[in-house]
Amino acid sequence: MKQVSIIGLGYIGLPTAAMFASHGVKVKGVDVVQEICDIINEGKIHIEEPYLEEIVKQSVLSGMFSASTIVEPSDNFIIAVPTPITREKKADLSYVVKAAESIYPVLKPGNLVILESTVSPRCTEDVLIPVLEKSGLKAGRDFYVAHCPERVLPGKIIYELEHNNKIIGGITEESAIKAKELYSAFVQGEMHLTDATTAELCKLMENTYRDVNIALANELAKICDKLGVNVWDVVKYANKHPRVNLHQPGPGVGGHCLAVDPWFIVEATPELARIIELSRKTNDGMPAYVAQKVAGLVPDRAKVVVLGCTYKPDVDDMRESPVVELIEMLEENYQVEVVDPYIEKYDSNVYEVSNDADLIVLGVNHKQFKNLNFDVLAKIMKTKKILDTRNLFDKHAVTQSGFEYFLLGDGSSTALAEEAVFEVAAAQV
After folding, report:
1. In 3-state terms, what secondary structure has residue 54?
2. Which of 168, 251, 274, 320 is the most exposed, fewest CB within 10 Å of its CB?
3. What pLDDT is stored for residue 178 in this prediction?
């Protein structure tokens, strides 16, 4: 029986391991954290993802899936480790290097090594392969290498791993074919074969496209605030055009993909990626823009309640969340309370937390916030003001309860702090 070792058992590695194991491929999962391995070996999971725990449990009980901190010989290796970004907006490839260093001592002729982590262009060729070749084997001759980026949405990972189309970038045609054969165990979507660097850039551009579109919407929101126009109406009606698809504005862009991947392209070609860099700076500047809006609505030391702190609605993932950055900014001048039903630390009663508050800021449009009782909030808050950054609330219902309602980009209030107490990221290239 062929075996696959998956290095990194996080948001991508663990679901991928579970899918292989549940489709007849023996899986050895590897993670540097012993506690994670122990949890998995008990048939449990350490992340939130629908349907995943049941699959992991059955795979562990059947003996098809186990986890360890040790990399052992295998037929196939898949690297699914994080690739964070540094303060200097550079790709941190140290986890990829460490994963490769753990593989090469046990690498054998005929093995296949797949890099799934999102990486900067030419990482497979220039970073991964030189480490693997410390084994004394030659990539493309003695063993196969491919870059096959993940393309899944948290909350739908299991379905999308199976049904999404997949890009397979081999360093040679045979490497790509070998990778396709492995993924054929469970992938039902179309698999498109190309070279490794093309696959790397495809993944980066998929997320960059969305990031640039969101930056356009965020810039439009600022313009609408200035002109007294409702950005949400502009987006809605512009999108009636058959060839227009404006995204929605918000307090920024988070997550490990959209907020990170475009910087990898900027790093590789800083003299050319001018629109990409400007878009990143625009989105990175949105928390400060919202903070300035807050400063125009309430005085220093006011009590501000922020609803939501994850990077997107209805998930427990706070990676690169712009609302976390917003909260940190607000804490410099205000009494800040946070409510988020998906984060244990902040899973509090919104009505209790909002007692004597001066302002509620809707940061994340979790479904739990959709039906807040504004009549109750009106009775317990000191000042009845709401700043909605996501267009979640019904303005009529909010104002009927006696609130002043402010919506990001609706032009109803162009108030910003008179002094730039929060530094907006420079949008200059």
Report:
1. helix
2. 274
3. 98
